[in-house]
Amino acid sequence: MAMAAMGIGGGALAFLLPQRRRVAAASWTARRPAVAVRASYEAGVGVMATKVGMMTYFDPATGKPVPVTVVGFREGGNVVTQVKTAATDGYDAVQVGYHGVREDKLTRPELGHLGKAGAPPLRHLQEFRLTAVDAFEPGQPLDFAELFKEGDLVDVSGKTIGKGFQGGIKRHNFKRGLMTHGSKSHRQLGSIGAGTTPGRVYKGKKMPGRMGGTRTKIRKLKIVKIDNDLRVVMLKGAVPGKPGNLLRIAPAKIVGKNIPKN
């Protein structure tokens, strides 16, 4: 009888175990602190531009050569196409359009969206998430010379040049093997892991594969010169992509200056 009682008791406990686990999980979820979701805000509204190429600029004050990237703006410029607020969209942001095109290059929904803002047909649309959008309204043109000045630092984003499928030497700067003395391993990848343990290849292993063609941001580039007559801007250093590539230029994020330290 005692064994039967123990069996019944054990079976009852085993039956109640999943329910107890659910209660414990529910109580732990109730005690778990709420996780604050923080979005990435821009330091200010930016613009889109087109890469023209690189050249050497001689500083008039010192005469020293400075490698610069020339950035231009296509016809149509940058126009505010939508102002998003926390009341209507759940967050504050400014949508900017760039590169004017013919109407037959866009779909009817795109033309309707731009027409609602009073903007011309524009090929590219991007948004800048801000903390306050009171100073912007749909259809407002954005002039680079009014937003930035010479000496400012900017973050430039763009798509890098695609290199196709490349090996480990070109893609990850691996060293090659000996070309003489009987070596049969010249540009091969070599070992990619142990055999029995772990018996697999770790994720993220540097191996041959697709190189380039990804979105990259170059931070804190200095504005060397703004030429309003030619409608071009000179940035110190290199930016992603080849000539004709679309670029996104925004104020550089600097902790303690335009981004809180905490």
Textual characterization of the structure:
By secondary structure, this protein is of the alpha+beta class. It has helices at residues 2-31, 108-116, 144-147, 168-172; strands spanning 47-58, 65-72, 78-84, 93-100, 122-129, 141-142, 153-159, 164-166, 209-211, 215-227, 232-236, 246-251. A 6-stranded antiparallel barrel has the order 1-2-11-10-7-12. It has a 4-stranded antiparallel sheet with strand order 5-4-3-6. A hairpin with a 6-residue loop joins strand 1 (47-58) and strand 2. The model is unreliable at 1-17 (pLDDT under 50).
Q: In a few lines, what is going on in this structure?
A:
The chain has 262 residues and is of the alpha+beta class.
Largest sheet: 6 strands, antiparallel, barrel
- The average pLDDT score comes to 85
Secondary-structure element order, as H and E?
Answer: HEEEEHEEHEEHEEEE
Summarize the amount of helix as a percent range. Answer: 10-25%
Query: Which blocks of ≥5 consecutive residues have pLDDT under 50?
Result: 1-17
Number of helices: 4
